[in-house]
């Protein structure tokens, strides 16, 4: 995993490190600056741990105004800035640059307003995803997007990567659940987008900013849509003798017009590891497992689960079980939510993130198996089957350079397969540095150039989150033309 080129630092900025740090100390309280080597090392990587770079300094502001002052200074001084939430990015999206400061928003984690009548919550973006739902849980409301890392990941990171989660099938991903944003531009200007209701006046720039991976500004506040809890919810599990049968069952359920809250997929290696961790009652004698959750009244739940049961029998399930209690439901989801950590107990892994049309699910699963077998690597498949968002976990030995290289090649081929099947490179993890050079497999030169022109409108000097998203040679050629 060491084949991705890193943006070269600028020697003139590195030489001014002391002066830059001293200037920052005049803009924010001293406790907000991390300048020592040990402190900076804590920010040298994100969840794509194969890559590490020590930042120039770290700033941990506590207000939007402090963020504005820091960005205004960096704009004038030509200092690059990498925004960071909890560092859970799996694509290197928060990897620092040596000549950049990391601007961490973890201390900006307050709930600013809750409006149950209009069904929104306004928060600072350093708050965790789970923290949002917990803050409104006593009032019987929740925030829908629920990534597996929701215990740690922040709303700012969710906005940057347009995160989804298990329940996005019914409720949508982050972009479908954000009403408004407060964002600081690279020159320090503070702008507000959207509002407190859907279809706010003015240009609809929210979908442009959400998912832009910190390339256009730093979002400090977000107004999120909250929903009232359903009357009830219940998952069921379906086990099959093949991944192909499970994939075909998913397509059949969706084709019948049934939209469950979630449809999650695990193959046999994942089932075994998650069951050993969570003791959720997962069947160990099947090749693939679907976790399907529906919600509504008891009558609605029974009706929907009955329909799904009848559809599933066309694909000869070997195991069928409906949750009979809240405790069983919690255990079923505990296993799924802890899947990545459970896999990490037995092996290093490279977590992929691609999307394919549901009609191509069986082809994708077969292709992933063939690719990993060719590279002599094992794979565990855990993903959001309902919307075709795949998360193959390629198992490898991080201490073996050859295995690391083979894992990276297998990952590239899997993502290329997703594009060839009519899908795309990323569903919710983002591009970062991981998929940066693969952008040309999905987009032609004109497409990429147009995207870079949009970035230039927001960040003319290309100081925000440098070296991410766009192929490095394309970046260099573009900047050479416009400067």
Describe the fold and architecture:
The protein is of the alpha+beta class and 483 residues long. The protein folds into 5 domains: 11-104, Uridine Diphospho-n-acetylenolpyruvylglucosamine Reductase, domain 2 (2-Layer Sandwich); 111-228, Uridine Diphospho-n-acetylenolpyruvylglucosamine Reductase, domain 3, CATH 3.30.465.10; 233-340, 2-Layer Sandwich (Alpha-Beta Plaits); 347-420, Alpha-Beta Plaits (2-Layer Sandwich), CATH 3.30.70; 445-482. It contains 18 helices and 20 strands. The protein has helices at 11-14, 17-25, 37-41, 64-77, 129-136, 155-161, 168-171, 206-209, 243-255, 268-278, 298-312, 326-337, 339-344, 361-374, 401-420, 439-442, 445-458, 472-482; strands at 33-34, 57-59, 80-84, 100-104, 111-115, 120-124, 141-142, 178-184, 190-194, 218-225, 227-228, 233-240, 262-267, 288-295, 319-322, 348-351, 354-355, 378-384, 389-390, 392-396. The model has no long low-confidence stretch (mean pLDDT 94).
Structure keywords:
Uridine Diphospho-n-acetylenolpyruvylglucosamine Reductase, domain 3, 5 domains, alpha+beta, 483 residues, Uridine Diphospho-n-acetylenolpyruvylglucosamine Reductase, domain 2, Alpha-Beta Plaits, 18 helices, 5-stranded antiparallel beta sheet
């Amino acid at each position: 995993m060491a084949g991705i080129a890193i943006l070269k630092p600028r020697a003139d900025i590195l030489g001014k490190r002391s002066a830059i740090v001293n200037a920052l100390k005049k803009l924010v309280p001293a406790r907000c600056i991390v300048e020592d080597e040990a402190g900076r090392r804590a920010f040298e990587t994100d969840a794509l741990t194969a890559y590490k770079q020590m930042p120039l300094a770290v700033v941990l502001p506590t207000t939007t105004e402090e963020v504005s002052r820091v960005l205004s200074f960096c704009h004038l001084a030509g200092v690059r800035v990498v925004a960071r939430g909890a560092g859970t990015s799996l694509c290197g999206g928060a990897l620092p640059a040596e000549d950049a400061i990391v601007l961490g928003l973890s201390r900006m984690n307050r709930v600013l307003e809750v409006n149950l009548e209009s069904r929104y919550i306004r928060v600072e973006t350093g708050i965790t995803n789970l923290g949002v739902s917990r803050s409104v849980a006593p009032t019987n409301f929740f925030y829908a997007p629920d990534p597996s890392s929701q215990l740690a990941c922040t709303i700012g990171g969710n906005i940057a990567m347009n995160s989804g989660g298990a329940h996005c099938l019914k409720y949508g991903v982050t972009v479908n659940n954000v009403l408004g944003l407060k964002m600081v531009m690279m020159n320090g200007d503070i702008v507000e987008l959207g509002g407190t209701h859907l279809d706010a006046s003015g240009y609809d720039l929210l979908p442009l900013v959400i998912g832009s991976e910190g390339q256009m500004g730093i979002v400090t506040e977000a107004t999120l849509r909250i929903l009232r809890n359903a009357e009830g919810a219940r998952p069921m599990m379906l086990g099959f003798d093949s991944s192909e049968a499970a994939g075909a069952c998913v397509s059949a359920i969706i084709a019948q017009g049934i939209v469950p809250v979630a449809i999650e997929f695990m193959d046999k290696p994942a089932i075994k590891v998650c069951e050993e961790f969570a003791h959720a009652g997962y069947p160990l004698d099947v090749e693939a497992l679907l976790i399907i959750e529906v919600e509504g009244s008891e009558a609605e739940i029974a009706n929907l689960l009955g329909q799904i049961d009848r559809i599933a029998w066309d694909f000869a399930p070997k195991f069928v079980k409906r949750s009979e209690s809240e405790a069983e439901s919690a255990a079923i989801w505990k296993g799924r939510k802890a899947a990545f950590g459970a896999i990490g107990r037995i092996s290093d892994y490279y977590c992929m993130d691609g999307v394919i049309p549901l009609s191509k699910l069986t082809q994708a699963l077969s292709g992933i198996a063939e690719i990993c077998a060719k590279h002599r690597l094992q794979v565990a498949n855990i993903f959001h089957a309902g919307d075709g968002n795949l998360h193959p976990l390629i198992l490898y030995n991080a201490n073996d350079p050859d295995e690391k290289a083979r894992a990276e090649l297998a990952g590239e081929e899997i993502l290329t397969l997703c594009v060839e099947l009519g899908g795309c490179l990323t569903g919710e993890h983002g591009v970062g540095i991981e998929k940066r050079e693969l952008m040309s497999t999905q987009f032609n030169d004109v497409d990429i150039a147009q995207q870079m022109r949009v970035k230039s409108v927001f960040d003319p000097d290309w100081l925000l989150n440098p070296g991410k998203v766009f192929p490095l040679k394309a970046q260099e050629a573009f900047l050479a033309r416009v400067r």
